[in-house]
Amino acid sequence: MESPRAVFRTSEWDPANHGDQHVGQFYTIPPSQVKTVFPHGLPHRFQQQIKTFNEACVMVRKPALELIGYLKKADPAHPSVRYVLYGERGTGKSLSLCHALHHCSLQDWLILHIPDAHLWVKNCKELMPSSYHRARFDQPIESSVWLKNFRVTNERFLKQIKTSQKYVWSKREFTDEGRPLGEIVDQGVARVKNASDAVGVVLKELKAQARPGSYRLVVGVDGVNALWGQTTLRKEDRSLIDPSELTLVHNLRKMMKNDWCGGAVIATVTQTGSVFTPSSAYLPQELLGKEGFDALDPFLPVSVPAYSEKEFESCYQYYRDRRWIQHHRGHTEEGKKELLFLSSSNPAALERICAFL
Amino acid sequence: RLVCTSSTLQRKNIAAAGPEKYTQEFIKKQIEEFNIGKRHLANMMGEDPETFTQEGIDRAIAYLFPSGLFEKRARPVMKHPDEIFPKQRAVQWGEDGRPFHFLFYTGKQSYYSLMHDTFGKFLDIQKYQDRMRAEGLFSQDTKQVRWMIKEELEEILVQPISDHDCLRFIQLLERILALPYCSREEEYIQRFRRTLEVQSKKQKIEPLQYDESEVAFSTGEGRRKTATATARVLDNGAGKITVNGVDYLHYFPVLQDREQLMFPFQFLDRLGKHDMECKVTGGGRSAQAGAIRLATARALLSFITENEMESMRQAGLLTPDPRVKERQKPGQEGARRRFTWNKR
Fold first, then answer.
1. Which chain A residues contact residue B271 at CB under 8 A?
2. Which residues of chain B have a CB within 8 Å of the CB of A335?
3. Chain A CA closest to residue B271
4. What's the family (chain A) (predicted)?
């Protein structure tokens, strides 16, 4: 049947062409792009949903459209603008970020996507003192994993960009000036000990070379409040580590400053996954703390609310269409009202409830 | 002459004697004592001894002997001796050993005599019908009525009967009712019918109150296991619920609690029509959800019809849950758990 399908789906797969008329509709990301653009970027539950439904369908919503509009209008000559997505738990901030990054990838920007900054400040199995700077700590596993995914996303650029200085890794290994950036990434992946430093080098190079003439760079960080919060990692003498003592965090903070032009920084502040924050906090000021707020100031806040009625209706129709709601009562009008009440129009809550229906 | 006996033969066999028999004089003495005690009690409470009713006695005893026992039948009680001592039959035979009643040797004399009388009336009505051959109707009862149950019949006959006997008796009465002209023996049959009381009349309804901006609202209170909740249900709403100032999705992250909140609205089909603000203190997560559910149901009473209220009562939405934490007993680890048993 064509007509019910048309209500909640759209065949427009390019986010650049999404407009207000597409709000509430689902668009499919072609599978080839899913692998290249988001090797590690999508939230875990969404990845499970992709596997179940065999397609990656994202809903077009107002906050994402707002972001894409700003990105289109932004002038590359100006310093990069920082956008912060905020909202209550489970309202769709990470997916809006992915939507915007998909748009950027189709516009041929260089994507620097950190799927969850909270993973870098907690539960680290191996912590080594940095070879480059004595007071800092390295995280080899996370760095190498991230470098691998970065290589998958931006293959093309890694061959184009050239290093601007010589980097010495150890007594026998070094990278000359003018070599493609891909070599540094390979070095980091091969030599896990130097992976964090490789990440630092990559970030520095990209920032330095993001001029109006060359490529445009977008930095997408999920959970940026982890960079200025507290960590759960301890040194050998059982004292807590400050985030600035971690190499990865230190380099990333430098990226977040707006002293470079030709790109944009999109960040989300989330409470899920953050340590030592109350679950009722969702405003940027509460989650970033004074230090983080000053570092990111000035920024453009974008609020992500829960589903509106139209969006809820369209999500419900999508689940029905995919035969996800099996219970016979779920197909009735009362069942829909029950779902609306129980999830209180929260996308994550709705997804969790429908998971066992 | 001393006959050889042992102490075991001389001991009384208590089980063979049967239930304790009260003599008529004993019962009369108890009744006198009860009346005198009633007057004393009235004097103690400062009420008029002449017009002191059984309700007054109950209130006085509850005041003078307060008891925290959960079982109502275990509490101290002062009632007329006829209600306390079970009714017993007077001796059925005379001095010569000959029984008074002609059906004594059937074993269940009152039951069979009742059946005999009722069947006699049945035959009377049939004879009358043969004579008249016209129509006549039984007066219809407007209220709900039911036949007597076996326990009530036993009480009237002062004799144990079985379920089968009770069934036969009720079948005979219904056969009488099926005849025209049964109105002749109407009062005899009415003795064996009881009315059902309607339970929901006991529920009181809060009147609807009106806010400043012409929005109708109503309040209700509920309690469950040391959690108390007050709910305010507003009309013309969109389904927003606030608990202690926080959205209900954040206050109750567990699905089960939100389902409890949803139950009163879903039952009345009013899911998206009301807004609610509630305050709740005490108890745990489940207790607070249950308390809010009861408070919501009571608040919604002012918006609905009587039939809906009856159906809500039958669904159990309006009944406060009496379960509380059982106390721990000395010598045991918890309320029911004993200490680990060691052989040595």
1. 334, 337-338, 340-341
2. none
3. A337
4. Belongs to the mitochondrion-specific ribosomal protein mS29 family.
Does the pLDDT value for residue B38 go beyond 90?
Answer: yes
| Predicted confidence band of residue B116 (pLDDT cuts 50, 70, 90) | very high
* Pairs from B244-252 (Cβ < 8 Å, separation ≥ 24): B244/B278, B244/B279, B244/B280, B246/A280, B247/A344, B248/A344, B249/A343, B249/A344, B249/A346, B249/A349, B250/A88, B250/A279, B250/A280, B252/B285, B252/B289
Query: Are the C-beta atoms of residues A125 and A235 closer than 8 Å to each other?
Result: no
CB-closest option in A280, A337, A343 to B272: A337
Closest Cβ–Cβ partner in B239, B248, B250 for A280: B250
- List, for residues B129-182, the tens digit of each pLDDT value: 888 765 555 555 556 678 888 888 888 888 888 899 899 998 998 888 888 777
Report the 10 Å Cβ neighbour count for A137. 21
Mutate to test the interface with B, among A307, A342, A345 (most CBs of B within 10 A): A342
For residue A282, the chain B residue with the least C-alpha distance is B250
Chain A residues inside the 8 Å CB shell of B247: 344
Task: Please list every residue in chain B whose beta carbon sits closer than 8 Å to the beta carbon of residue A349.
Answer: 249
How far is A103 from A80, CA to CA, in rounded Å? 17
Q: Where on the phi/psi map is residue A136: left (φ > 0), alpha (ψ -120 to 50), or beta?
A: beta
* CB–CB contact A334 B271 (8 Å): yes
Q: How far apart are CA A344 and CA A68, in angstroms?
A: 28
User: CB–CB of A342 and B259 under 8 A?
Assistant: yes
pLDDT tens string A302-352: 888 888 888 888 888 888 888 888 888 878 888 888 888 888 888 888 888
Distance CA A333, CA B193 (A): 47
Query: Which of A338, A346, A353 is opposite residue B266, by nearest beta carbon?
Result: A338
pLDDT interval class at A277 (50, 70, 90): confident
Over residues A158-169, the pLDDT tens digits come to 788 877 787 777
Burial class of residue A185 in the structure, from the number of CB atoms within 10 Å of its CB (0-12 exposed, 13-18 middle, 19+ buried)? buried
Judged against a pLDDT cut of 60, whether residue B333 lies above it is answered with yes
- How far A335 CA lies from chain B's nearest CA (Å)? 10
ipTM exceeding 0.95, yes/no: no
Mind listing the pLDDT tens digit for each residue in B275-326? 889 999 998 999 999 999 999 998 888 888 888 888 888 888 888 888 888 8
